[in-house]
Amino acid sequence: DIAMRLEKLHYDNSQGELGVTHFSYNQEGRLESSVWELTDGTRRSKNSHRFDDQGCEIQKYREFSDGLTSSNDYEYDAAGRMMVERFSRSDGRTGTTWYEYDSTTGHPTRMVAEGLNGWFHGIVVFVTDSTGRKLRADIVKDGKPYGSIEYGYNETGLLVREHWALEQGEWTQTFTYEYGPVMF
To answer: What are the contacts of 30-39 at 24+ separation with CB within 8 A?
Structure first.
């Protein structure tokens, strides 16, 4: 089998925004930096990524073309599962997201967001397969159904599509993942 890694992440939403992130790796094959840009050229960011000794990403720092900066800082449990994500942006926008896992299987069960990436507040309840791979998720906000997430995988099991539909489909966003072979 050929090892694969993420090379591009395509993004679109129902407001017509289109973007792409290109990922760069160091000689050891670890993600080092990425560049995100809207395809119309109106906004972009240079992103740096930091990892701990176990290979878990502990920070993503972004510098945007409009002068804003942001940081996502991640905390993990002893099993290497993300437990907390903290977001802060130079304009004062902040957020914290907590992740929960099934105590028997270790599979992800819930994400409780109070400002995920500075904007999303709500609860995401995951439905997984027997291996823990996310199949879909139900989004709840203020105790009411708010939307859903659908996940799609290729024949080798790599995540290739993530589609969010919020407010009964009035707002959507789709992430499409593109992979390439690991080259050393």
So the answer is: 30/55, 31/6, 31/57, 36/62
